[in-house]
Amino acid sequence: MHASGFQTGLRHTASALGLGVAAAAGAIWVTGGSPVEALTALATGAAGSPEALLRSLAKATPLLLSGLAVAVALRCGLFNIGAEGQILVGGLAAAWVGGMDWDAPAWVHAPAALLAGALAGAAWGAVPGILRGWRGTHEVIVTIMMNYIAIHLTHYLVNGPLRDPTTMAVATRPVHEAARLWSLPGGTQFSAGFFLALAAAAAVAVMFGRSALGYEIRAVGQGPRAARAAGVPVALTMVRAMCISGALAGLAGAVEVLGVHRRFFDAFSPGYGFDSIAVALLGGLSAWGVTLSSVLFGGLAAGSVYMEGWTATPRQVAGVVQAVVIVAAGSRLLRQRRRDEE
Amino acid sequence: MTAPAPLAVHMEGIVVHYPGGVAANAGASLAVAASSLHAVIGENGAGKTTLMHVLYGRRPPDRGRIRIAGSETRIPSAAAAIRLGIGMVSQHTTVVPALSVIENIILGAEPQVAGLIRLRLAIARAQAIAERLGIELPWTAASDRLSVAERQKAELVKALYRGARILILDEPTSALAPQEADTLFDVLRGLVANGGTVLLVTHKLQEVLAHAQSVTVLREGRTVAELATADTYAEELLALMLGQRAGPAGAPLVRAPDDSLAYETPWQRGPHSEMRRAPADPLQVRPMPLLECSNLRVRAADRGPGLCDVTLEVLPGEILGIAGIDGSGQQELVEAVVGLRSPASGHVRLEGEELASLDVNARRERGVTYIPGDRQAEGLVLDFSIEENLLLGRQRDRRFGGGRHIDGSVTGATAADVIRRHGIRAAGTRAPAFSLSGGNQQKLVVARALAGAPRLLVAVQPTRGLDVTATRRVHEALREAAGRGAGVLLVSLDLDEILDLSDRVAVLYAGRIAGVLDRSEADQRAVGRLMLGT
Fold first, then answer.
1. Are B393 and A226 in contact (CB under 8 A)?
2. CB-based contact B330:B304 (threshold 8 Å)
3. H helices within B162-282, ranges in order?
4. Measured between CB atoms, does B340 come within 8 Å of chain A?
5. How far is the C-alpha of B24 from the C-alpha of B46, rounded, in Å?
6. Which end of chain B is more exposed for a tag (fewer CB within 10 A), N or C?
7. Under 8 Å between Cβ of B162 and B81
């Protein structure tokens, strides 16, 4: 049952992707470019060489973690629009702990910094979870507001108390060597964070497949009244789901800081938290589906940079592919929901 | 006899296939004489509702002919049906709660001048219709203030306001007290006397025999009989509805051979009545009540009265029926007993133990289980499999894993066992709940509530929407639970069900206990009077 759902999901995603590529080809052709040349460059940049592939996986890493975050919340029936804010506070917490003069070995310092990022994200997710569970305040509104708080709070901290005075950039001090994640030398930005993200996907898969908590989250998401009538603690389950969701997003921020940037730059996230919504929906909210869709989006991001460099096709064309894929996948979800309601 | 007038409605050879190939109508026909009250009966799934949807333009038939007042026609939409003078009063009345009664009545056909609604004109027209029927309605009151019976009358006026001459009523009395039902039939009789035609879809045979002139019986999507009610009787109609499965007259239960032992285990067999009827010896010590509610006050769930100073008890082995018009405090009572709503004051005790501070899980551990009234929303997670649904609420039970993880082999074996013992028709333990029929969904909910031999079973509308066979099985399960010594708190809007099963009947009216009747004193009239607070 599970496998076949995954397969149909895969088929739908493939057709959505085909539609997206066709739309992009049209856009390139209309603006006077060569679709074949540009799309070949896009593919080459995404997966044409080992370096390209690693670059794609590096771009996929934060999307995978935050995509899992959105998926976990949505399985509980909660729309976590706040992954962006959770990424920012997670990243800053990781940079702060990673930058402490600790003199601890790497096996202590790096995990501590990651943990700090996850906890900060969890705290940021807990607020909308608590307000929704016990006060009934809609989580979409609260998570959006929490995004603003996160943006401005990190902006203040990184400009004020946590700013590195020795550099022109608006950033924290670099994290210690011991707190950094292993990464490949060269410009691929591929780090151990990718394996961490894969492990997180495996953990989420096990949680939904075999744990009582995962079962409760799904029950609350798919049948809140039945869950309540059967004695599932609905409010508490919502808070738990939002904490896990926030922790995953916080981890995404921490991995970017510790594995790629080595310090917290102000507003370092190019909107991972928002792209992650598309990643989660396209992945059908399943852990492995989200993994595949994050790699797809990572590839589009990496490939578009290459395409722009080699064919002078604006990288926004990749955005066209992304947008059409999202709309196609989203309309399928809507259709499914409407059928469920009938 | 004069020359026969054309039939008001004549449908022939109606075939409707639903996606998935199920034939909801497989050659159904319907012939209704003008100005008559005609009943359509059949089990659930016999195709009554589908046939009415065809007539009301909601579902174009795949095949078949429809003639209205003698001329052949097609009815592609509800708007077309309304133009042909067909009106529908549905099972669940559809009103916009925020609008006033008159606004709901004119919705979709507002008399207007330059975009402004002429409310006075509308009220005058509606008033004329209502007077002809002997109905009074508060036209400018908010619709959600109306009782179920009043809403139904408003729907009736609405249909006539739109010019309906043929009225379809789908289970109109299911939420009414007997006196209210009588009033409704008075109104309908007046309508027929004025030349209207009424189509009554129902499963209550007494209503058919008392009020209809003729009846069409559907079974498995086909019309199996068209009779004048003067020429038939209840047993014949029942036999026609059930077809092959009907037993000899007076047989208590019709069972399919494959699931004959469902609900029964060896220690449950035997007439439960012997076990629970205590001899009427005044000197004998009364058994300790299983459930005791005293001076229970509960705030209202939404509007409604809430619960006010309710005191009642359920003895071991007893079925206590709770009768009352919908919204009289049933929901609050049930939720206070199962642990979903904390009372403002008063006590709920199970064998002397105060339950107030315990949640649903703690109460279930003490033996309180719950069959919710809305099986699709409250009973089941429809997207979950049978296996997952049986686990609901017990996902941290040691039996299904260590409390944190869930052991798939145990849940699978449990589900397979339940499917076998309760005769659930399903593709397997992994079949999603939405793929089951209503009766099998309810079997699943009942099975979960019966797991672990509960001491107090709280059942709300346990047979709503079920056909005769499924209803009997649920009733038998409740009786057997009582026979085992469990107490049953049965809340139902179906008075026949209450009177059929209960040892005592408590009647709720506006959040208070209006009276408690013994089985011997409880009949339609007596309970009905209490239900209306008179």
1. no
2. no
3. 178-193, 205-211, 234-242, 272-276
4. yes
5. 7
6. N
7. no
State the Cα–Cα distance between residues A96 and B267, nearest whole angstrom. Answer: 68
Taking an 8 Å cut-off on Cβ atoms, the answer to whether A231 and B359 are in contact is yes
Q: What are residue B491's phi and psi, to 5 degrees?
A: -105, 125
Report d(CA B405, CA A179) in Å as an integer. 33
H/E/C letters for each residue in A314-340?
Answer: CCHHHHHHHHHHHHHHHHHHHHHHHHH
- In a mutagenesis test of the B interface, which of A210, A215, A234, A336 is the best target, namely the one with the most B β-carbons within 10 Å? A215
Are A290 and A280 in contact by the 8 Å Cβ rule? The answer is yes
Residue given tokens 């705030």 in the structure block: B299
Quote the CA–CA distance of A73 and A83 in Å, as a whole number. 10
> What is the maximum alpha-carbon separation in chain B?
81
Nearest to B56 by CA among B28, B33, B84: B84
Give me the tens of pLDDT residue by residue for chain B, a chain 534 residues long: 455 678 899 999 999 887 656 678 888 999 999 999 999 998 767 888 889 999 999 888 999 999 999 889 999 988 899 889 999 887 565 677 778 888 888 887 788 777 788 888 889 999 988 888 788 888 888 887 777 778 888 888 888 888 889 999 988 887 777 788 888 899 899 889 988 999 999 877 788 899 999 999 998 889 999 999 998 888 788 778 877 544 433 333 333 333 333 333 223 333 343 444 444 444 555 678 899 999 999 988 765 678 989 999 999 999 999 998 777 889 899 999 999 998 999 999 999 899 988 999 999 999 999 999 888 889 999 999 999 999 998 888 888 876 778 888 889 999 999 999 888 888 889 999 988 888 889 999 999 999 888 999 999 999 887 878 888 889 999 999 999 999 999 999 888 899 999 999 999 988 899 999 998 888 888 888 888 776
**Phi, psi torsion values for B9, nearest 5 degrees:** -130, 130
Secondary structure, 3-state, B353-405: EECCCCCHHHHHHCCEEEECCCHHHHHCCCCCEHHHHHHCCCCCCHHHCCCCE
In this structure, the number of other CB atoms found within 10 A of the CB of residue B97 comes to 11
Using an 8 Å CB-CB cutoff, list chain B residues near A1: 385, 430
- Which two structure tokens, joined as six digits, stand for B151? 């809403």
**Measured between CB atoms, does A230 come within 8 Å of chain B?**
yes
A127 touches chain B (CB under 8 A): no
Is A210 in Cβ contact with B408 (below 8 Å)?
yes
B206: left (phi over 0), alpha (psi -120 to 50) or beta: alpha
Write out the two tokens for A140: 């979409």
d(CA A3, CA A16): 20
Does the distance separating the beta carbons of B339 and A226 come in below 8 Å? no
Q: Is there a contact between B381 and A226 if contact means CB atoms under 8 Å apart?
A: yes
What ipTM describes this predicted complex? 0.84
Q: Distance from B361 to chain A by nearest Cα, in Å?
A: 5
Q: Does B239 touch chain A (CB under 8 A)?
A: no
Token pair recorded at residue A36: 């074949």
Tokens of B332: 């609050």
Quote the minimal CA–CA distance from B401 to chain A in Å.
9
User: Among A210, A213, A226, whose Cβ lies nearest the Cβ of B380?
Assistant: A226
What pTM was estimated for this model as a whole? 0.75
Residues in chain B: 534
Helix (H, G, I), strand (E, B) or coil at A40: helix
- Kindly list the residues from chain A whose CB atom is less than 8 angstroms away from the CB atom of residue B383: 222-223, 340
| B388 contacts in chain A (CB < 8 Å) | 215, 219
Question: How far are the Cα atoms of A34, B111, B242, B488 from residue B161, in angstroms, in the given order?
Answer: 65, 11, 38, 46
Asked if B488 and B272 touch (Cβ cutoff 8 Å), the reply is no
Q: CB–CB of A87/A273 below 8 Å?
A: yes
A5 touches chain B (CB under 8 A): no
